[in-house]
Specification:
Four copies of one chain form a homotetramer. The first copy, chain A, is of the alpha/beta class. Chain A is built from ten helices and 14 strands. Chains in contact: A-B, A-C, A-D, B-C, B-D, C-D.
Chain lengths: 332, 332, 332, 332
């Protein structure tokens, strides 16, 4: 931590800051400059809470050098983490893992038809939502545990591991019974209680980036899970909120190589939620793979026009099959 | 809902859209223009899920006229709602209600000292956090139920109702036992399960705006609570996330008169979290009152330099007392 | 400047950084930490261009301590600047200065009628646009020099100094002939050539914040003007671009006290452009004054329903007169 | 245009709106709904200025169906535009065009060395800045006309057309004398006077997206150029401003396929300015090509560590040569 003093800070103010630093068990070291004094803070083992210092008299700015995460950092864990979902492995230089399926589980027939489509096209993991977060209370909210069973059944039928979202701690037992990979949605990225609970499990987790989360906050959220002992975490970029309204969100692909530099955890991309438009999904899926994504999550529905949720961003069977062919052609 | 067709949309494409609208039990009505056709959708009683239509061939854009909320709307409920917290009433043209206290409950002594300060200065409701959402897992996480008891005890001692944040459904019983007003934090604004549960209670709720929530999403979140039968909701603006980094968040005061036009629910402002800086809190508190805020929430600590959480944005006793005096002088 | 090295940076990498710093004529000083080394850079007289260092091997981050402005900083110029526009003075603790008038000069009759309204209500400076920046090329673009003459004529008629926007260097001669205060619009805040030219004049300047400019960039833009010798600069907050679409922009009132801490230049607020809605202008104008604004700029039109530009955000005579009365009642 | 009335709008209010619409020479058509009335506006040939209507009593919202551009729209001009720069053609399904060179022209030796590098690696167009927009006034501002000459000389030496930025109208003559393609930078995207002037030329133009410009505003800016008669416009995505600070800007690749749907103009990507980091440029360049970019603009310097400007984001010779090889391998 670096504490930058005002141009006109007095010796007494500098002494008071030094004292506060020492009270925290740390060591202040003055860095005199031609225009102002700065105070380096030494001796910490990680991120420091600066609230006792930030507003002391004469302090102009507090600059953090340590980050609010450490276990997820590649700095301290150079080897890439491989996450295992059923028999599927994801991470490092392994081939891109395809997760695909409908937004919501709607019925046995729909789930099975969708599963057959994605399996036949070559997907690795089946997705399907049983508990749905919806912006307004009057929309379809998911089938609940019944949906979990239908998802599991469809996965078993076609021989694929399954991923589904958990929205609250009370659903964890059910989700772990029926799924192979637990998804934490963007709206829950900073639901710290939920993060801690999944951190106590021996179960792989897919953590989606919050729609206005910085990369630092995204990694700090993953840190909550690792701090409890669960290192099987996959990160997922799904678009951020900006002033642009022509797409549902703004897909931030630069985050992929950046996170791979900063962290040993794998990162995948969800172009369906990022763009919100079926016609943009295939091209952005390819761009995501070229940017280094270690997996993709794609919404596929056997009959998008009848989908109860997010039909506008779902590919149909033909569209997804074509995308899989195109991805196999990709050489980069 | 209005469906705008492409300039070159064919008659068959228009017919297909009409058919889809009718399948949803609604009535399409063509609005031919000089450059393109639009289709008005009539017969709905509220917001329509457009996902079956948005990506049909020939559709250029779908424009919503209805909003994803109705119960919170002033359009359908012209009279302002008054929320009752203990003996304190808030809303409509009632005097501004002051909520104040420390970010976290840290100890019996700290809580009582802070309560005495805010009571003496004239605050109406005592705040204090027992369950704390923190960005990184290595920061102080709150005292839990023990903190709730200390908060209640301090409130009783000085004769003030108390408000505290609930972070998950499992904490609701405890929070309702010890508090008079339940706070849903910004990170949980779209934790829909939690919203539904508090909607089932007969208990006043303080709902904070998510840091990247639009006004429409904010009101739709409140709709979740009202839809379950609980109309005692206070909204709270606490700053939004923008590109600006000089303050913790960007305080959006225009939301105050705008929400009051759109909704009958009261709205208060939290300048402490919005600015993140003690020196900016008093002036923005006054600006908030002038913009029409029906209440304020201010962080006050008996010894901010020693606070375990958010000390940099907490006022001390002298600062808060001065603010209360200044607010009484305010004539507008 | 502080250079933070990777956890695993080698001694050779650190040496290479030190060498680069020395090549720039500066002095590196190592700050060894328990987890990594940082290098303080000493000897600079202001902001350092870090591009030769930022991407050297082993460098994790470069942190700036100095800011890209100095002349506008209160740190080096503690006394508040007073700007003189005709006989009107603005800044420091002087009374709030009201600038008002139509978005565009449309005709002699409209300009004179509007001038009479604002004069009678008590405004200090008359505004009117002769050169208009419009998003699309098919909208009304302003009357040009003819508009400048009508503005001047109306100002003389009612005895008020006038302010108008300049959009390019070639217009400066004309604008200086007819106006008393030159406005640089938000879209030109980083038109550095224009800033330098007005910096060479002895003429007061009103600089509007760019719609996505940080406070640091805003002050750095003003620095361009002061660096050429012109210190008569008024800053103007007019809303920033965020994800919120319910208002035209998001009015950032916290910038007012913050800029007053950081700089000696005065700052005013334009609630008309910030909100884009006539019904929100008066309340936000009052909030701006309470937040410390040293002036306001308000759009007023004698017949808003017939305005060629921005009628939706213009007050009429009755509305502006009421606002002036309300502002006189304001006690804070 | 669609005018949505309040739930409780009176017949008189609806009549007043109808009258205003008719005064504008347009035809109102009522669309009665179960909850409220909407009024469709027919008869317009393009975008309507709504300011006379938006704030009439009883109006809740005005929704635009037409866009503030038409000439750039693919709706009215289905064939892709090919832009010719010297002998290089760009657009439609033509091979990706590579523009490369240093941020600034610094000296004859630097410019020639850089030109040789990019030519040998296979680039098509040479870039180099003679007039530089810099955030602070104390940074290197470019060599001016002398820089233009050195750029031209280097281009001629290696046989490449050249592109350079124009910052103001007064520089247009010089830039047209020495360059083959005029660049309008992001900060000038809404410098409408400049856009109109280049619209009057018979000269190809590279228009960069403003850092907080929506796609609609970006296309409306291009409309200014086309409206004056110049159809040789290349669009360029170079990153937008968001809350994320880990990269210089947020690269929005989805804009590439989206603009290609909406407009016939070609679009290229500048990953150097978007990311601000040399190590991220190659991977994002590849992702841009896969997303459909019809060209790339890459900063290359013969000795980035000594660059006077943006060295941190410049590739050196080896880096750029490798990127060109990688791009040739790309199959998608």
């Amino acid at each position: 931590m670096l504490i930058v003093m005002d141009h006109a800070a007095t010796a007494a103010q500098i002494a008071a800051v030094n004292e506060s630093v020492e009270k925290m068990g740390l060591r202040p070291e003055a860095i005199p400059g031609s225009q102002r004094t700065a105070i380096g803070v030494l001796g910490n083992q990680g991120y420091i809470d600066d609230s006792a210092i930030r507003n002391l008299a004469g302090v102009r700015e507090v600059i953090h050098v340590s980050k609010p995460y450490k276990l997820v950092s590649r700095d301290f864990h150079p080897d890439s983490t491989i996450v295992k979902v059923g028999k599927v492995e994801l991470g490092g230089d392994l081939p891109v893992v395809m997760m695909a399926g409908p937004c919501s589980v709607e019925s046995e027939a729909q789930m099975l038809a969708s599963a057959c489509i994605v399996k036949q096209a070559g997907a690795d993991i089946l997705r399907g939502g049983a508990f749905k977060p919806r912006t307004g209370p009057h929309s379809f909210q998911g089938l609940g545990v019944e949906g979990l069973k239908l998802l599991r059944q469809a996965g078993d039928e076609v021989g694929m591991p399954v991923v589904t979202e958990v929205m609250r701690i009370g659903q964890l037992d059910d989700v772990c019974r029926y799924a192979d990979l637990i998804q934490i949605g963007a709206r829950n990225m900073q639901n710290f209680d939920l993060l801690k609970e999944v951190g106590k499990l021996k179960f792989p987790v897919l953590l989606k980036r919050g729609m206005s989360a910085t990369i630092e906050e995204f990694l700090a959220a993953a840190e909550y899970i690792l701090a409890e002992g669960n290192g099987q975490v996959i990160l997922c970029e799904r678009g951020i909120r900006t002033f642009e309204t022509a797409t549902r969100n703004t897909l931030d692909l630069t985050v992929v190589p950046l996170v791979q530099q900063m962290s040993h955890l794998p990162i995948i991309v969800d172009p369906s939620h990022a763009t919100g438009r079926r016609d943009l999904v295939p091209i952005m899926a390819k761009a995501a793979v070229v940017s280094g994504a270690q997996g993709l999550m794609i919404e596929v529905h056997n009959d998008p026009a009848q989908a109860l949720c997010d039909g506008a961003q779902s590919l149909d069977g033909a569209g997804f099959t074509q995308l899989m062919l195109d991805l196999r052609q990709l050489k980069f």
